[in-house]
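S.,

Sequence below, as promised.
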Amino acid sequence: MEQDLKDKIEKPMDDKVASPEPQQKKKERKWLRRIWGLLPALFLMGLVVGIVMLFGRIQSESVILEDKKKAELRQKQADVNVVTLELVPAPIRDRINLPGIIEPWVKLEVLTEVSGKVVKKAVEEGDILKKGDMIAALDSRDYKHAHRSAKASYEAARTSMNRLSKLHREQLSARSQVDEARAQRENHKAAMDTAALNVERCAIRTPISGIVNRLHIENGQYLNSSDKVAEILQTDRVKVKVGIPESDVDAVRKIENFDVRIDALGGRIFFAKKHFLSRTADEMARLYNLDLSLDNASGEILPDMFARVEIVKREVPESISIPLYSVISRNNENIVHVVKEGIIHSRRVQLGLQEGWRIQVTKGLKAGEQMVVVGHRGVNDGQRVNVVRTVRDPGDIVK
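The prediction came back faster than expected:
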């Protein structure tokens, strides 16, 4: 009995001790299953974090390498020498340069008015004449005889008319006789005056002042009426004839003064004024003829000389202009380099008028800045340079 009681007492105790063991194992297995279920998500999150950190590190190292490369580039290029231009406001003009021809102010062909033999050649080519000076004399004997005959007839007619007028006052002649005599007197007077004029025309004189450019006669030569005697040029002032394109007519219409360069006279510049602008264009060249008046009191400008006429269409008195070659075209933009404290700064600029090798900058630069004009194609933005020379006048660059 004691043994049975002992077994009964021990058995429940063993059951109570043994029963929690399966419960604990269930809990452990449950947590293991949860942990194993979270492992893929934790792995994925760790992978994403690792990638982000790696990307950030790569980007940081890339920036460091880029800065290092720029620093090395600056260090390598620090010895680049450049010449700069100090930007000073100056006038710039939109102008055109057109060819022209010098012509005499007046070109006159002197012709004979009567026929006859040349008995005296009074001038030579190159002589300077005043208005009324004699060029040549024709044989006038026949014309003088005709004049004397006409004069005699006139005197007879005048005497006859006076006599008939006296008789008419005494009522001894008809009024018609007096009128007829007066008409005859006038006819004979006209013939006498014409004969006197022909005698005067035998002395061929210049109708204008000028220079004898050509002489077409010789002593003893017989001339008919309207034959050429001499060519007289008036060159104390001359004309400059220029052809103006249609696109520039409106601008030229507003201009009164022009500069004329004559290469034959050492490229000297002369001042000319507008004389006349044609209202119609030349049929062949489609150019409008412009005549300029140019003083030539010294006579050094000769007809048919070649001239260049400068026409200023527009002028900007105070503008920033730079050498055209200093502008770098890149990606449809115009770039220039400015130096500040030894460092290159690239600028985008807008351009305006062009005059020769200079071009106006309307935006992007200001007076007083120093722009690179020599060595500008071998530098970059942010680069350190050595400014070996600074000029104010672009013409000094080549000196």
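The longest helix spans residues 20-77.

Coffee later?
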